[in-house]
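Possible regression after last week's pipeline update?

I re-ran a chain I had predicted before the update to compare outputs. Posting the input and the new output here so someone can diff against the archived version. Not blocking, just want to make sure nothing changed silently.
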Amino acid sequence: MKKFTNKDIQSLNKKDQNLIKNYDKILTQEKVLKKSLIKLNKQKVKLKKEYLELINERKKISSQVKTIYNKTFITISIVFDKRWKTYICIFKNSDSQKSLYLGKHDLIVDSLSHYYRKDEFDNSIDFLKSELKKILISIQNKIISINNDNKILMKKKKLENIIQLYEESGNWDYWSIDNKKKS
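New output (post-update):
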């Protein structure tokens, strides 16, 4: 569309003049926005390219990081043997696995019960397994170590030592001195 000159605009009535001025203003804003959109699209393309490069880089090193993770972090599992009513803890990393005999069900109930209010303590297998796992996870660095060959080594092997270390850590959610056994 042909652009109006000032002389052309002045020859029009007031309503048409306002309409033409408004049209020109909109046209100017449209051009500015179009330039901004073009600029944003260029930025979007550039950012997408950077994003894809980062994803490729992450994929390249993820297996190496996973190997480091598996060497460094240890999985702790608590197993209950129904035949003998005993609990066993299994420490496992990518290269090694160690088992730790924790004790019979009744011994563990006796050892842990005085650290909980009577209404809180549940001597069910699931409750004891979750509490034992919580205890062992929080003090795992004090009871096991990893040598240069990534093998797990046991430092403490008795339940009473483990509970004592946990008690010294101050991590008990509740500890009732009234329930504590008299030694």
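Follow-up from reviewer: compared with the archived run. Residues 77-169 form one domain. Marking as no regression found.
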